[in-house]
Amino acid sequence: MNAAEQATSLELTSKIASLVNLFKLEFPAARSDLKPWANDPDTRELVDPDSIDIGFHFPGVSRSLQCRSLLIQIRFHADLETKARRAVGIELAGFDHRGKQWWLSTIDSWEFVGEHLPSADAGQRLKVFLRQALELFNQPED
Q1: Coil, helix or strand for 21?
Q2: pTM for the predicted model, two decimal places
Q3: pLDDT single digits (tens) 14-70
Q4: What would the DSSP string read from start to end of 81-104?
Q5: Is 62 strand, coil or helix?
Q6: Least confident among 5-9, 74-78, 84-88, 136-140
């Protein structure tokens, strides 16, 4: 679900803003998009209500990342007893004018899969960012 729609509390809004800042520390040229999904019935049918989705766009194709845009989808699981939500994983995909170029899931093997993969350095920086993002969203709420 679009991050802008999930920002329903001060704490969650703060975590989303912190996530954007963490990404921009690694990739300063990126522009964040808190509403990467269109608001039409067909798209709404596919959106996971237990996720926070953020897009990042570069001014051109990022050679190190082998994409022009990234989609980050943080997946959550709610504990029915405590009603606490915790991040269980993140899916990350890189896109250019040809479509999806690569994909990585922290739920599985943390390995990049696709046609045109990020450079080793950029891939490592993305993995560091993903670890920080999981830590950020799994901090206990006040």
Answers
A1: helix
A2: 0.85
A3: 998 999 999 999 999 999 988 876 565 554 555 666 788 899 999 999 999 999 999
A4: TT--EEEEEEEEEEEETTEEEEEE
A5: strand
A6: 5-9
Q: Find the helix packing angle between 120-137 and 10-26, rounded to 10°.
A: 160
CA dist., res. 79 & res. 130, Å (int):
22
**Cα(40)–Cα(125) distance, integer angstroms:** 34
Separation of alpha carbons 61 and 39, rounded Å: 26
**Cα separations (Å) of 100 from 8, 64, 82, 97, 140?**
30, 16, 37, 9, 34
SS3 label, residue 77: strand
Give 40-51 pLDDT, tens digit per residue.
Answer: 555 455 566 678
Q: Which residue in this structure is represented by tokens 């800042």?
A: 21
Token reading at 112: 């990049």
